[in-house]
Amino acid sequence: MEENKEESLCDAARNGDVGKLTSLIESGADVTYFDSNGQTPLMHAAKHGSAASVKALLDAGAPWNALSPSNLSAGDFAMECGHQSAFDLLLNAGIQAELILGTIARKDDAKDNNGDYLEDRVTFSEDKVMDAESKAVMMAWEKPLMEAHAKAICSGGGHILNIGFGMGLVDTAIQQYTPVSHTIVEAHPEVYNRMLQTGWGEKENVKIIFGRWQDNLSQLESYDGIFFDTYGEYYEDMREFHQHLPHLLKPGGIYSFFNGLCGGNPFFHVVYCQLVSLELENLGYSTQMIPLPVKDCLGEEIWEGVKHKYWQLDTYYLPVCQPNDDSE
């Protein structure tokens, strides 16, 4: 009998019958229910574009971030079907939940992931840097993206800061713009040693700081362009770095970061693009997200031997952040 109530809830959500939906919710129907296809009432409401049903289910506590067996959320279904009102409600619910709880990308325990990575052995090949668990730290397919990031942060010339060297893709691109100074912060000992072996310590305009950026803030100055791309850190770490931007970025400067936030799910990615833009806005920065198509860079062969596909979307949104005029 209990299951019938939940199945009725799914039917009402599919049909956009808000009266019946509300009645079932009030009678105790479980809004977190997954049907035999692994879909929730909220997914059905989103797929069929009933904004009123979406709102009623969200208000009743339906999880906005539940995933179907094909890794899609209600927001993905609303996006795919072009239901803007339902999508807006889900996007707002996601942003509000993440602002309060940080459920997707927050540290789930006290374990220092960054510390683990720094002690990990990494392996280098022509097209990727891998950690000990065969997870990619950085891959060559990112080269056009890194060149676009470098172009953005070097557009005003001057003094440039990059947090996280990886394969050196962005730093190689930065060098093409011959900045006055080019500071690189790299925390991994093997990556640092490889930098020295490949001549980065001998470049006249390059200053290498070995260690975690958190431990070396006193060595950092004020820059015209900043890029942030660390491996083994969480969104919380980037959020902490953003708190230092007012001291690190000159008025009129440009900040960008590798935007891999929730790169395996289109809707979660949109939520995080909006969230980071909102948080930067609160710090006095305006953020433009420039869409770059990446589908053609990412054939299946790219991921051979890689345990985790950290990017599965067709479009990369390159962030360009600048201080608002009134914060200069």
TrEMBL record:
Annotated compartments: Cytoplasm; Nucleus
Subunit structure: Monomer.
A single Gene Ontology CC term: cytoplasm
Record function comment: S-adenosyl-L-methionine-dependent protein-arginine N-methyltransferase that methylates the delta-nitrogen atom of arginine residues to form N5-methylarginine (type IV) in target proteins. Monomethylates ribosomal protein L12.
GO MF term list: methyltransferase activity
Domain of life: Eukaryota
TM ranges: none
GO biological process, one term: methylation
Pfam families with a match to the protein in the record: Ank_2
Annotated ranges, domain RMT2: 110-328
Keyword Cell membrane on entry: no
UniProt-recorded name of the protein: Protein arginine N-methyltransferase 2
Organism: Penstemon smallii
